[in-house]
Amino acid sequence: MRILFLSDNFPPEVNAPASRTFEHCRQWVASGHQVTVITCAPNFPKGRVYDGYRNALWQQQTMDGIRVIRVWSFITANEGFRRRVLDYMSFMATSTLASLFVRKVDVVIGTSPQFFTACAACMVGAFKRVPFVFELRDLWPESIKAVGAMQESATMRLLERIEALLYRRAARIVAVTHSFRRTLGSRGFDIAKIDVVTNGVDIARFSPRTKDSELERRLGFEGCFVAGYIGTLGMAHGLETLLQAAQRLQSTPGGEHVRLLMLGDGACKADLQVQAAQMGLTNIVFADSVPRDEVVRWWSLLDVSIIHLRRTELFTTVIPSKLFECMGMGIPVLHGVAGESAEIVEREGVGRVFEPESAEQLVEAVLAIQRDPTLLPRWRANGLAAAARYGRAALAADMLRSLQSVVGDSTKPA
What we know:
Rossmann fold; 41% helix
């Protein structure tokens, strides 16, 4: 099968869309399929092109057998709704144009969270007369309203109409959660054409390892219990809750040896740093995003990982991909996300769920670990056992079957 995949995030970027797309495409190439990815110059989340790349009209490289075409886009930091929409729309235009020069395509995939990439894939599929598959990673534009970035308006209603059109035009929708499938079904869309392929983990890359002693010394974490948030510091994540928890721990018996690591960049990082200084927090360390190959060194520092999103109905339908990376590394989680992902944490026994935006419950969860030394070893063992059920190779094969279902048997590799 000859697969064309449109995604505005791709390695060396390290966010969830980039990792999922790369790991799936790599598995498909290993299975004998031809894969071309059209993306832009790596720049997420700071809006600065990575060293060694240019924001040019056309650049081409090969990564693990994947043909990667990078096109020009309007680059901006991951902040400011209007500027980001310009970013999205420019990539929609240039990726559509570039797709016309990719010959012999059997299926085209467009991935969210923002759906302008899916718009491009839809148009390319129609032009090339091949099936368009919508990989649904987020209910966008509903998520814009959920974080308060945009209110109900004529523009929002237009975006929602475009969203509905994409769902109808897609030959297949591959959703990353069962909740997304149920939501679309409740809105009248055909659930028979919606498959669910959850996020997962590259077990070969995210596996248990001892704490990186050099980093531990550099950050002053020796002899400390380290709780960490690793990922985008954005509007959706409600990370003020973590600052409030750090403040409580700083003055609570049993919390004096706890350190909080916040690794990543995003729209809210500068404000969070200012707030932490104003609150007099000495038990929190902010660190910038690191290259993809370095991330596991930082994961290794954590005794427990904190996963958190704002308290809103929409976020009960999502499953943060870092949950599976924690499983792969045997890192227990304190999970401040309600809904489907919380059910996974409890079912697999890999950590403790706390109410989103509740600093009090987060502090209590940390202190409970201090009181009961049996918790962490049990959660670690459960996480490692569960990781095998969410291995990226098996999930890539599941998505490949979805693609094959709309293309036909004649395109299977020999």
